[in-house]
Design brief:
Number of strands: 17
Radius of gyration: 27 Å
Shape: globular
Largest sheet: 6 strands, antiparallel, barrel
Strand order of the largest sheet: 10-13-16-15-14-17
Mean pLDDT: 90
Order of helices and strands: EEEEHEEEHHEHEHHHHHHHEEEEEEEEH
Helix content: 25-40%
Distance between the termini: 53 Å
Number of helices: 12
Length: 491
Amino acid sequence: METMEAVHQTEFRHRRLSGRPLVIIPLTMAGEAGAPLAAMVGTAKRDMTLLVVPQPRNRDQRFTFAADLGQIVMRYIDSYRQDRRGDGERSHYSDAPQILVPNHGGIKALADLGRMCRFRSTSGPYAVPDAVPEFGMWLTFLVDTAEQAGTSMLLPVTTMLSEHWATGQSTLEDQNLASLMAWIAPPDGLSVAQALADAENPDICPPAGPATSPEFDNRHLAPAIKRFDAAHTLSDPHELATAQAELRDLVAEQVKPTWRMMWTAISLLRSVPEAPRTAKRFERDRVSFTSYSDYRDTGGFPQRKRDTAIGAAQRLSRLERALADFEADMAFDDPFVLADRRSAGEAFAGTVEESEPGRMFTTAKNRRVPRPYVTLRTDDPVRLAAGTKLISPSMPAGHKAVIASVHPDGDTTLVTVEVTGGMGRARTPNPGTVPEPGQHLAYLPDPGWRPTPVFPASDHTPWTHSPGPDEPDTDSAVPEDAAAEEWGHED
C-alpha cells in the first residue's frame, strides 16, 4: 500500500492453466440473480460468441439462451473426451477442460444456471431443448469441483491473480477484476491510483459481472428492453430486428472491456512458472472428469437439490482433505509460501547440529530398521508437538520424519526429528538420505494418507438427520458405484 505496487507472494503459479481454456463472462440483471442477461464465451481473444437474452424474464428466451450456451460448452467438453489412456479402472482421459470466469460471482451465476437447467424435461409440457439438462448437470459438476482446493477445471481469474500477487486493497476488493488488474498491470501511461479510479468508474470500466451496473440498467438497459417488448407485441419484424441489435450493442459495450482484461490476465499468469506439484493435482482432475463422464454415459441422475446428512458429511470430508493437501503442496513447492508457514509456527527451518545416522529400531516383528535421529537449531517459532509427521522440500523425494522432541534453547529452539522414510531398503541408509551436521533444511507437517471416513447408511442416521416428510430419502435408489456415491441424484 505504501509503494502502490503489487508484489509477488508466491514464486510459482499453483493452478494449472490450460493451453486452450474456455472463457465465459456471464451477465445477469442487477437484482435478478435467476435471470441471465448475456454471456460472452470463447477459447481465444479474437474468437468469441456473444449470446443475449432480449427479455431475461421470459422463460422461453432464457432456455433458448441456455441451449445455445450449452451447445458451445458441451462441444468444448466433448473435445476432451476423445483421447483415453490406460486399461480397466485406471483408464482416464489424457486431458481435462478448463473454464475461466472473471470472479467468484461468475461461478455463482453458473451454479444458478446449472440448477435452473438440470431438472428440466425435454418432452411434454414446458419441454426444453435436449442440450439444456445435460448442460445443467455438467455445469453443476464443474461448480462442485470449484469448491475443492487445488482443482483447475472451473476457476475465477481473480483467485489465480490474488494467490500470486498481493495488493494494497482488501480481499473483497480483489474480487473486482478491473481494480486487481490496475494494481498488477496498470494501462500504459497510468499510475496505479489513476487506473484504480478508472476501474471504479462504470462508464469507463463496466463491472466484470455477474450483475450489470444498476445505473446502466436504469439508463440504458430497461428502456431498450421496453422497446424490444413493444416491437415483439406489435410483431413488426423490422422494429424487432432493430431492438435486438440495439440490445446486443448495449451488452457488447458492457462485456468487451472485461473480455479483453481476461485475456490480458491469462497472459500475465502464463508468465509465472507452474509449481511442480500442480501436475499431480491435475491427475486428480482428469480422474474426476473421466469418472463423471462415465457416469453421464451410463445415464446417471442429476445432482440433488440439497445434500443429505451423509452426503454433506462426505462433501465436507473431501473439501477438508483437499484443502490440507493443497496447502501442504504449496508450502512444499514454494519458498514464499513456506516462509509464511514458518512465521506462523506451522513449519520450521534450521541447521543440523547433530546426526545419528546409525541409530536402529526394533519393530514389533523383531526386525531391525534404521531410524536416525537428527537435531536442528532453528530461529523460527515452533508450534508443532512431538509426534507430528513431517516432510521436507530440502531432502530427496520420499524423505519422511517425525518430531521426537522440541526444546527451547535461549532465543532458538532445538528440534529433534526421527527419520522414518526415504532411506532405501537396506539396513544402512543410502548416501544423502540422512541430513548431516551443518546442512540447512526445512520441515513442514505431512498431510499424509488417511483412510476415507466410514459414514453410516442413510437408514441408520438419527432422526435429527433423516429426511423430512416432504424430502424423500433417495439414497437407496442411487446406483452402487463410485460415481453415484459422489454425485447422487434427485428422486
